[in-house]
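queue> pop job 88
queue> type: inverse folding (structure -> sequence)
queue> payload:
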């Protein structure tokens, strides 16, 4: 199978290597944009990343290294999958980049056929990965959710997104919206818990002039302004019961009246709702109409808490760090390994929102070049300083190794040779580590 039709960004400073890659890829039917420095690539691709199906990036460039480029790309919208091209000595860094969500790495010299199949397997659009893309996260759970939402995007049925506060329900709703709609379609978000109950109805449905004291002119509500886009009702569990009846009618009749009005207004948007609490307790006494529940929960999605998605903790930390560094104009080169380990051991009650806020504050206050545990958790000195609950370094290292090996084995369906390659170690070393750390694999042919 050929990867024809793909648009590929190539960041490679070596004129011979770059020239020959462009030639070979163009022969395969790809369009290639070639940049010879990191700055040139970032400048030229800024705001245009959505046009690229894949980026091939050398790790060692004259002005910056692959990691710096990747962190910059992560801060942009629509980051395409990135495959790194690496010399033998840079494999450790390539593996680190994979932890941040890079698609793959190939070591020089490489066979072109194998290279082409990696391009084909990882490029977006033309050959979408069966388990979803990484806009919502790189963890298996979020990839599955992305795939589910892509399926849901094919219909108009209501979607109910559940999950803890700050887990990314609104981000998922926007992702669904963007899958279906062009730039012009509106995404109207209403936080039902933040608007006083007596105002909520007129905020959603609008009102006519004179409908109540203070209604000095006609007001169009969120339902009308959503047009044929999305009406996102966040914290629907906090909606007062009388209004729940009106939302039920809105869904069933696909039309409504403005408050104080006679005119029937058609409703063309898709309804997406979200809640952090259980809407039904089976007894019908949870303060939420069960008929409405069944209407809004036709297509349910549950976002798992951040603490259950370690891969996303690492990647989102890198993304938020890149964004915060730019905002604060500070030189913070990255997150230290110890900080990553501390973050992986924390339970993140505020989920992604808390992670974003902690990284933002950490970057603003960081004294050194790397984000340290004390920058991320200044309020929890006991958990990172000497004393009770302080894990020895060997334990932290074992935990990290165990997690990464299990991940590599999952990625390669238990194939030891492949997993060892991903981890940048020999097969024998991998076996030894697996035995010591008590990791088993189902595959027997290894
Ligand atoms: N996958 C993600 N990528 C980048 N940022 C994310 C992601 N998920 C969540 N965030 C960020 O975390 C914060 C909380 O996300 P969001 O508002 O979607 O959560 P929520 O579950 O809707 O929260 P709430 O229950 O409070 O309404 C936002 O700043 C959002 O940008």
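queue> result:
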């Amino acid at each position: 199978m050929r990867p024809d039709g793909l648009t590929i960004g190539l960041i490679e400073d070596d004129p011979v290597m770059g020239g020959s890659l462009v030639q070979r890829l163009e022969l395969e039917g790809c369009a290639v944009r070639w940049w010879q420095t990191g700055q040139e690539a970032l400048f030229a691709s800024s705001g245009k990343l959505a046009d690229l199906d894949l980026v091939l990036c050398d790790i060692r460039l004259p002005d910056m290294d692959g990691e710096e480029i990747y962190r910059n790309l992560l801060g942009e919208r629509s980051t395409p999958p990135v495959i790194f091209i690496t010399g033998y000595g840079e494999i450790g860094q390539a593996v680190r980049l994979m932890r941040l969500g890079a698609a793959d790495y190939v070591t020089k010299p490489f066979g072109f056929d194998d290279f082409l199949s990696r391009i084909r397997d990882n490029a977006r659009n033309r050959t979408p990965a069966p388990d979803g893309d990484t806009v919502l996260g790189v963890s298996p759970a979020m990839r599955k959710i992305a795939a589910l939402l892509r399926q849901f995007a094919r219909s108009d049925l209501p979607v109910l997104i559940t999950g803890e506060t700050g887990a990314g329900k609104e981000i998922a709703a926007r992702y669904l919206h963007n899958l279906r709609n062009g730039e012009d379609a509106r995404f109207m978000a209403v936080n039902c818990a933040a608007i006083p109950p007596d105002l909520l109805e007129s905020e959603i449905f609008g009102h006519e002039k004179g409908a109540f004291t203070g209604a000095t002119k006609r007001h169009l509500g969120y339902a009308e302004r959503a047009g044929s886009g999305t009406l996102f009702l966040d914290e629907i569990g906090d909606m007062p019961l009388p209004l729940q009846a009106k939302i039920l009618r809105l869904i069933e009749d696909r039309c409504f009246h403005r408050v104080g009005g006679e005119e029937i207004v058609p409703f063309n948007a898709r309804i997406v709702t979200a809640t952090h609490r259980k809407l039904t307790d089976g007894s019908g006494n949870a303060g939420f109409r069960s008929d409405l529940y069944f209407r809004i929960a036709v297509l349910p999605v549950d976002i798992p808490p951040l603490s259950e998605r370690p891969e996303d903790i690492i990647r989102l930390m890198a993304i938020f760090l890149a964004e915060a560094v730019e905002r604060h104009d500070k030189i913070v080169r990255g997150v230290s390994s110890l900080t990553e380990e501390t973050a992986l051991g924390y339970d993140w009650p505020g989920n992604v929102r808390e992670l974003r806020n902690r990284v933002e504050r950490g970057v603003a206050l960081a004294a050194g070049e790397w984000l340290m545990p004390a920058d991320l958790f200044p309020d929890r000195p006991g958990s990172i300083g000497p004393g009770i609950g302080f894990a020895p370094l060997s334990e932290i290292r074992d935990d990290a190794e165990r997690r990464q090996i299990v991940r590599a084995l999952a990625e390669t369906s238990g194939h030891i040779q492949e997993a060892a390659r991903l981890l940048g170690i020999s097969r024998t070393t991998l076996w030894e580590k697996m035995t010591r750390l008590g990791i088993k694999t189902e595959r027997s042919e290894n």
